Amino acid sequence: MFLKTVLRIIRSLLFVDRCVVCHDEGSVLHTDCVAHFAVTPPHRLSWIHSVWHYQDPAVKDLIYILKKKADTDILETCLQNISSPFSSDYHIVIPIPASPDRMRQYGFNQAYLLAKQFVVHNPAYQLCDALMHTDTPSTKQALVSDRSQRLQNKKGCFTIKESYAALLSDKHIIVIDDVSTTGATLIEARRALAHAAPASIQAWTLGH
Question: Running DSSP on this structure, what letter comes out for residue 25?
């Protein structure tokens, strides 16, 4: 962990941040550049709501950076002009949990940081870290290209933390992740959360 920290510091000294949209120095994302991201078409799963089109190279670059860098300033720039697509009913916001491998490698969960910032901009909502990974072994999603394989790979990978089960009953739930490609991760999260009998389950991502 110490070596990784040292390497991150060295990298920050050697490489200057450039905006993923305009490529000017100083920041990964300038506030004025957010409007240039391509808006996403509706997700094929109506309960998944996304903001930007993941096929936009700038969006893809941004999400790659968010996966590697725990920077709340970037998230703040992303979210400050984005309104929640959900009704004003009381909601519980649940981030997709990071895999143990990811936590060992990077030491943070980008979905949790995104969900936390989402709640900052929607203070009526409650952040609830209710999901956890099961011990079910799976192949890394990045190595699986076929959607049916991804769905099978994710099957049974999440469960509800026992202490949160009662809290979720009859509540409106928003599951948060940085990106949805096949929808496999969100489908499995929704399947796990359904066992708590919530009033509804929807999902929100930056891109798809």
Answer: B
Give per-residue pLDDT as tens, 30-63: 999 999 999 999 999 999 999 999 999 999 999 9
> Which structure tokens are listed for 178?
């940085």
Burial class (CB in 10 A: 0-12, 13-18, 19+), 191: middle
- The H or E element containing residue 174 is strand 172-179
Span 33-207 CATH architecture: 3-Layer(aba) Sandwich (3.40)
Domain ranges of the chain: 33-207
Among 151, 163, 167, smallest CA distance to 199 is for 167
Residue 18's DSSP bridge partners are: 25
pLDDT value of position 19: 92
According to the model, what pLDDT value does residue 55 have? 94
pLDDT (tens digit, 9 = 90+) per residue, 162-205? 889 899 999 999 999 999 988 999 999 999 999 999 999 999 99
